[in-house]
Amino acid sequence: MLKIPPKTEENLIKDVIKLLKNSKKFLDIGAADGWYTFLAAKAMPPKSTIYGFEPVDFIFDKYKNLFVDSWKNEEWYLDKDFVLKQEVVTNKEINSVTFYKPSGKSGNVSLSAVKHVGKHDKCIVLATCIDNILEKEETDCLVKIDVEGHELDVLKGGEEYFTNSKNSSIFLELHVEYLINQKINPEDVLSFLTDRGYSCEKIAFEGPRSNKSCNFLEWYIFKK
Prior knowledge:
Elements: H1 13-20, E1 25-29, H2 35-43, E2 49-53, H3 57-67, H4 75-78, E3 81-85, E4 88-89, E5 96-102, E6 120-128, H5 130-133, E7 141-145, H6 151-156, H7 159-164, E8 169-174, H8 176-181, H9 186-194, E9 199-206, E10 217-223
Parallel strand pairs: 1-2, 1-7, 2-3, 4-6, 7-8
Antiparallel strand pairs: 5-6, 8-10, 9-10
């Protein structure tokens, strides 16, 4: 079996840009500070639509107010539509998600309170799913997923789309170690898409951290 050489995430950008240039819609799920939204805005053709989803409040504010709003005088910004939401994209049965943030701190937001940190503030965030965003037979879309071990929930929330879509692509950051810690087989995430007719290409990985035997991260591109 061919071994894929490790790459940093920055070196994956050329692979993503190729996909963006042929896409009319882009879903940035787990947008963080908006780096992939920026790439999409510059690379996609005119009249494209970019959806950005980031659930953590202070990260979303930075994403929308400091980055995206600052592009409004750029020529490449003006011919795109942006739909930016502080929401979680997940399974369709979930209406909201509770996040925990250590009181008085801006980092370490998680889906569970970390006992040794002390007091936490709760933040309830609205949830949506891919099937609420994209039509089931929509074409020419790229979906980027970076959700820290919750990949399968996101995919299940787009079952109709992933089953019926044509000429669509997925750029998936697979958090292998996080999945295994939840007793989820990473192969189940990959087979969800391959079972629905997608080709699968592993383009990079980040090796194990500490004494773990599994890769920490793997990056994939799926096409149909």
